[in-house]
């Protein structure tokens, strides 16, 4: 893979930052607007979703994060490379924190990993065509992480994927 221009690389990084910010702000319309009409999601390393979804369906599934009192998705250590004529791959470390009260106790759920976003260049800018998460670890433990997401899904009323 060859390099992008500094301006294109910065714009591609900005899309991944916008992904994290939209999740934390619960900006579902803004989140949906970041994607191609159809997007491949691979969260198998969390034990959840892998498949192709419409941008709207993926945004709807991520609304479970709204059941948390707060979330914080920090993305750092970016790598950006060209993929084909009109594509890019953006890698980034993600440090995601999720906070919820359930059954009278606070559950903090943390996951560390690596995002890999596949982007496509459009006239209006970069759009996400694929997103994969590879988990590196669960500070606080996997059991606590799973308990927090179970509480969020119960509060939300569904079985949406974790992020």
Biggest pleated-sheet summary: 6 strands, mixed
Beta-strand segment tally: 6
Order of helices and strands: HHEEHEEEEH
Strand order in the largest sheet? 2-1-6-5-4-3
Count of individual domains: 1
Regions with little confidence, pLDDT below 50 for 5+ residues: none
Give the oligomer, counting copies of the same chain as homo and different chains as hetero: single chain
Q: What's the alpha carbon Rg, rounded to whole Å?
A: 16 Å
Mean pLDDT over the residues: 92
What's the N-to-C terminus distance?
28 Å
Shape-level CATH architecture: Roll
Report helical residue fraction: 25-40%
Backbone structural class: alpha+beta
| Discrete helix count | 4
How would you concisely characterize the structure shown here?
The protein is of the alpha+beta class and about 160 residues long. About 30% of the residues lie in helices and about 45% in strands. It has a single domain, classed as Nuclear Transport Factor 2, Chain: A (Roll), CATH 3.10.450.
Give your account of this protein's structure:
- This protein is an alpha+beta fold.
- Helix content is 30%, strand content 45%.
- It has one domain (6-156): Nuclear Transport Factor 2, Chain: A (Roll), CATH 3.10.450.50.
- A 6-stranded mixed β-sheet has the order 2-1-6-5-4-3.
- The two termini are 28 Å apart.
- The model has no long low-confidence stretch (mean pLDDT 92).
Write out key terms for the chains shown.
6 strands; 30% helix; Nuclear Transport Factor 2, Chain: A; globular; 163 residues; alpha+beta; six-stranded mixed beta sheet
């Amino acid at each position: 893979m060859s390099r992008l221009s500094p301006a294109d690389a910065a714009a591609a990084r900005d899309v991944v930052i916008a992904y994290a910010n939209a999740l934390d702000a619960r900006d579902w319309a803004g989140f949906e607007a970041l994607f191609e009409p159809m997007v491949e999601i691979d969260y198998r390393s969390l034990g959840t979703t892998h498949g192709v979804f419409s941008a709207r369906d993926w945004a709807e599934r991520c609304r479970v994060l709204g059941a948390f009192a707060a979330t914080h998705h920090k993305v750092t250590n970016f790598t950006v490379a060209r993929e084909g004529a009109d594509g890019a791959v953006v890698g980034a470390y993600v440090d995601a924190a999720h906070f919820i009260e359930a059954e009278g106790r606070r559950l903090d759920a943390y996951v560390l990993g690596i995002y890999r976003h596949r982007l496509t260049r459009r006239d209006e800018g970069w759009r996400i065509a694929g997103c994969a998460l590879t988990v590196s670890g669960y500070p606080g433990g996997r059991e606590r992480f799973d308990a927090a997401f179970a509480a969020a899904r119960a509060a939300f009323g569904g079985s949406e994927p974790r992020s």
